[in-house]
Structure formats: structure tokens, C-alpha cells
Amino acid sequence: MNINLTQNKNFKLFKLISEVAEKNDQTVFIVGGYVRDLLMKRKTPTDIDFVTESNGMSLAKSIASEIQPSPTVTIFKNYGTAMFKFQGLDLEFVGARKESYAEDSRKPSVETGTLDDDQKRRDFTINSLAISLNKENFGDLIDPFDGVLDIKKKILRTPLEPSQTYSDDPLRMMRAIRFASTLNFTIEEDSLKAIKQEVDRVKIVSMERIMVEFNKIMLSEKPSVGLKLMEETGILDLVMPELTALKGIEEVDGQTHKDNFWHTLEVVDNISKHTENLWLRWAALLHDVGKAPTKKFLDGSGWTFHGHEFLGSKMVKSLFYRLKLPLGNDMKYVQKLVKLSSRPIALIDDGTSDSALRRLLFDAGEDLEDLFILNKADITTKNSSKQAKFKKNFEYVASKIKEVEEKDQVRNFQPPISGEEIMELFNLKPGREIGILKEKVKEAILEGEIGNDKDEARNFVIKEGETLGLILA
Ligand code: ATP
Ligand code: MG
Q1: Angle between helices 384-408 and 368-377 in degrees, nearest 10
Q2: In a mutational test of the pocket of ligand 1, which residue from 106, 127, 202 has the highest number of ligand atoms less than 8 Å from its CB?
Q3: What span, in angstroms and rounded, lies between the C-alpha atoms of 192 and 180?
Q4: Element (H, E) at 303
Q5: I need a labelling partner for 234 at 20 to 30 A (CA). Which of 132, 250, 366, 386 fits?
Q6: Whose CA is nearest to atom 6 of ligand 1?
Q7: Which long-range contacts (CB under 8 A, 24 or more apart) does 261-266 make?
Q8: Quick one: which H or E segment has residue 188?
């Protein structure tokens, strides 16, 4: 098959690369993800990989020197690759290689090879496609492993024997599951078997690399595809046993609880229809994580998960730490949503008093809308009348919260009286009384004792200050 590249957006670039390679007496081919996505008519590319059967670094340099102004070429000596940026694309050049692997490492020892050797060492047939940029067969598709057919059949298959392929570099297991989730492909049966068999090898992959793939799964249209495969192959058990601990239904005295693992996957899929925010999707993934360790059957009340939100939000921290995920604001945001995840719904049972609504507004702050998105996604009952009832209850709480917010504006709470003003009132130096009084003002506003108002707050502080024994200046 020949791919007509003349209409391609990067035709001029391909032509230039072809000419420079010819002049240098080198071969050159486009390989990997770019070719796959081109044939699948998928997304606009961010990177293009080229392979040459001789030195990739010298090819990159000669090409870069033909471009005005010449881009800087970055060399990765260890990998024998070179890259430069061109019109927003990362262009990567590599010499064709032949690899062999040691037991204890994902890093192969590498020898120079032919295009065919290079295609064999790639992870999947759909990723081992190459397009020739050489003069004699410009545009020819080189597909030794029937990758095109696999694209049609939507399957992920390894070019060589699957067990060996996955055992050599177990990151490929995560890549298989990631591609299954993002492309909506099926992992071919022998591959799936091999992954299950070699699953323990995942332990030699760094957590950072696992998480790069995991986050791509989380950002796919239906993350449950990847999450289910991770569960089925045993990878999830190795990486996040806190999640698989949610699996299962227990029965005591004829009473059961829902399977919180499968419920979680549904919540993640639901939320993914409404947000591209990776961390909000993570909040959905972890919203019930505290349920396994808090589960109890109590006579009279049945199955309970008391305090699961609080424990869950603590578990977020240890999980993020272990998974080498960022520990700053993103983690705090996930913690906050997990902690608050049941609050809006609890309001329905406990009554929507203004003070409870104000407290929720105060605690959720700017993340209130995201909390609502999570709450809506959390409704997974199949019973349509129940579903309608939950939705209605929820809309009610949401509208009540809006009313309170308009009235009291505690969402992005700014104290109506500052520390300096309090110090001036009583002629005080900085000290613990200031903090105490500020906290009392906040509490009084949230409880509805005073409005969120400067004068009311001032009068309140004078009264409270006097009970603390302070004297007005
Ligand atoms: P993406 O759309 O995420 O960029 P990609 O297939 O281009 O997908 P890259 O990580 O950019 O993925 O890798 C480029 C190519 O390198 C792949 O298409 C594949 O041929 C090869 N490759 C990447 N990682 C591996 C691996 N672990 N084992 C074998 N081949 C790999
Ligand atoms: Mg790529």
C-alpha cells in the first residue's frame, strides 16, 4: 500500500527529510504512533518519530541545518536519539535497533539493526507501522505484522511472542491497557493471557511511568475500560490495592451493601462525560476509598461506613505519596472533594438549615461546582424512580445553597473585620487574642448569629473582646 503524502500538512518537511537522507546516503522512515494515528484519522499529532538504518543523531543534525532558522538539536546519547522542535512538533530521530533484555531491567542492551529489527522491537503491531521516505518507494507503507488489519479489527497484538514481549518490558502491559482505553481496542486473547501470567514483572517499572499511562486511562472517554482491564489482569491489585479492597458484596441477616468497586467505576465513567479535569476524575475514583476500612454491620442500622469520607481523604495523601503523584494543590483538591463528597446529600436527611448550608459553602469554597458534578455522577442506581428522586433532592440542595450564597456570600469568605482593625479597637499588639476573636467572628457568621457585615462584626468583636477582659481603646 502507498500512502499519498502530497496532501499531508507536513509534506514539505517529509520531502526535505527524504532529500537530506538521500544526500547523506541514509535510509529514513516515519514510524510508530504518527503512522497509526494517520491511518486512523485520529487527533492532530504532537510528535513524529523517524528511524534510519544508520546514525539518527547525524541525520537530525543535517536536517536541522537545512531549516532556517536552524532549530537546536537535543541529543540523548544513552538512547542514541536526537530531537528538535519544528512548527510546534517534536521530531525525534533514532537509529534502527535490535534489542535484548536482562531479567532485572526494562533497559535493553542495544545494537544497530535494520528497519525490520526495529519494527519487531515495538510494542504493538499497530505501533510498528512505517512509511518510507526514501526516493525509490516514497510513501510506501511497510507493515510486516499486519498492523493495518489489526487497526481494522481494533485489536492490540504484539509483533513477537507476547509473554516475551511483556516480560522484557512490563511497561507494555500498562501501554496495552492504556491503548485499549483510549482507542477503544480489545487486547488480543494471547496477549491478555500473557499479561496475567507476567503481571508481577510490573514491579520493576517505576511508579512515575505507570502513572503516566494510568493518567492517560483516566483521561480517556470511558476510563472503566482500562480500569476493568487493570482489575482483570491483577495490575490494579499490585498498584492500588485500596481500590480492589472495595470489591465484593457481603450479606448479614439478609442485608447486603452495594459493590463499591463497580460503583466507583460507574461514577468515574459518569463524571468523565462532564469534565476533562484529571483531578476531578481522580476524586471520583477515590470518593469511596475509605469504605473498605470503615465497613461495619451494626444491629439495628445494617451496613455502615461511618467516617469513610474523613478516612478516605487521609488515604488520598498516602496514596498520592506512594503513587508519586503531585502532593501540592492537586492532591489537596482531591482530598477536599473526597472529604466533602457526602455532605450535600447528608443535608437532605439532616435538614437544610441555613447554618449547615453556609458551612458547606465555606468548606467547599471555589470547588463547590466540582463537588456538585461529583455528587451527580455518584447517583448510579438503576431504579429510575429512585434516580429521579435523588436528582430532585439534589437539585433542591443546590438551589438552597445558591440562595444562601446570594444572601451571605461566605463562599470565598473574607473576614469583614481584619486583624489590624481588631488591634486598633483594643489598642493591642499582635497576639493570640486576635486569632481567637477572628475565629469567633467566622463562627458567628456561619452559625447565622450575625450577618457577613462590617458593622455587625465590629459590634460583635467589641462585645466578645470585653468578655475576654479587653478594654476598648
Ligand atoms: P502517543 O499517542 O501516546 O504518543 P505513541 O504510540 O506515539 O502514542 P510513544 O510513547 O510516543 O507512543 O512511543 C512512540 C513509539 O515508540 C510507539 O508507537 C511504539 O512503536 C514505540 N514504543 C514506545 N514505548 C514502547 C515500549 N515500551 N516498547 C516497545 N515499543 C515502544
Ligand atoms: Mg507518540
Answers
A1: 170
A2: 127
A3: 11
A4: strand 302-304
A5: 250
A6: 33
A7: 261/231, 263/288, 263/380, 264/288, 265/223, 265/224, 265/227, 265/228, 266/224, 266/380
A8: none
* Residue with CA at minimum distance from ligand 1 atom 4: 33
Q: What percent of the chain has pLDDT over 70?
A: 100
Question: Greatest CA span in the chain, whole angstroms?
Answer: 95
Contacts of 407 (CB under 8 A, 6+ apart): none
DSSP string, 220-276: SS-THHHHHHHHHHTHHHHH-HHHHTT----EETTEE---HHHHHHHHHHHHHTT--
Q: Position 136: which residue type?
A: E
Contact (Cβ atoms closer than 8 angstroms) between residue 162 and residue 179:
no
Q: In the predicted model, what is the mean pLDDT of the chain?
A: 92
pLDDT tens, position by position, 222-271: 999 999 999 999 999 999 999 999 998 888 888 888 889 999 999 999 99
Task: Please list every protein residue whose CB sits less than 6 Å from any atom of ligand 1.
Answer: 32-33, 47, 49, 122-123, 127-128, 169, 171-172, 175
As given in the structure block, the three cell numbers for residue 300 are 439495628
Cis amide leading into 293 (omega within 30): no
Question: What cell was used for 447?
Answer: 452559625
The radius of gyration computed from the CA coordinates of the chain, to the nearest angstrom, equals 30
How many angstroms separate the CA atoms of 112 and 128, rounded? 17
425-459 residue pLDDT tens: 899 888 888 999 999 998 998 888 898 889 999 99
Q: Which domains does the chain have, with CATH numbers?
A: 11-148 (3.30.460.10), 154-239 (1.10.110.30), 419-467 (no CATH)
Type of residue numbered 335: Q
